[in-house]
Design brief:
70 residues; five-stranded antiparallel β-sheet
Length: 70
Amino acid sequence: LRNGINLAGNDLAPSGGIPADDYASCCGICKATSRCVAYTFAVSTKRCYPKSSVGSGGISSSGSVSGVKN
């Protein structure tokens, strides 16, 4: 789990993400999505962004929490 990191790009969700209560819910969404390898949860908007790739490893974003599917 990486606080303050946004894994930009490689979104599997439609524009605007998927509603989620917290980062744990977002992790669950990723686990239930076959092509998902990682995710970013936007804290202020409570939106989940499942990712097909970690890309470049993420960018600094104080309102984001990211993780890798395990």
